[in-house]
Amino acid sequence: MTDLPEHGRFLHIAAEPGAGSTTLSLQLVHSGLKANGRVLWVGRDMPHPDRLSAVFGDLPVTA
């Protein structure tokens, strides 16, 4: 995925449960972080930690 919002822009994703919005969001966040971007995740629920580890496991850990 390369068509990410420009720096300083926001992207809002909302969908019915089960529509794939969390998967899409995680993929966009991963791409943004790989490009040295910053992400603010706001949601009612967080994805399961195992899912986060699977998606972001190849990224370096930062403080």
Word description of this protein:
With 63 residues, the protein is mostly helical. The chain has one domain (1-57). Helix content is 35%, strand content 0%. It is globular.
Structural class determined from secondary elements: mainly alpha
The unreliable regions are: none
Q: Report the β-strand fraction as a percent range.
A: under 5%
Tally of contiguous helical segments: 2
What's the story with the biggest beta sheet? none
What is the H/E order?
HH
Please state the overall shape, judged from the principal axes of the Cα atoms: globular
Straight-line distance between termini: 26 Å
Overall pLDDT level: 86
- Identify the quaternary structure here: single chain
Radius of gyration: 12 Å
The total beta strand count reads 0
Helix content: 25-40%
Query: Could you say how many structural domains there are in total?
Result: 1
Explain briefly what this protein structure is.
This protein is mainly α.
Can you lay out the helices and strands and say which pair or pack?
Layout: H1 21-34, H2 49-56
Features:
about 60 residues; mainly alpha; 2 helices
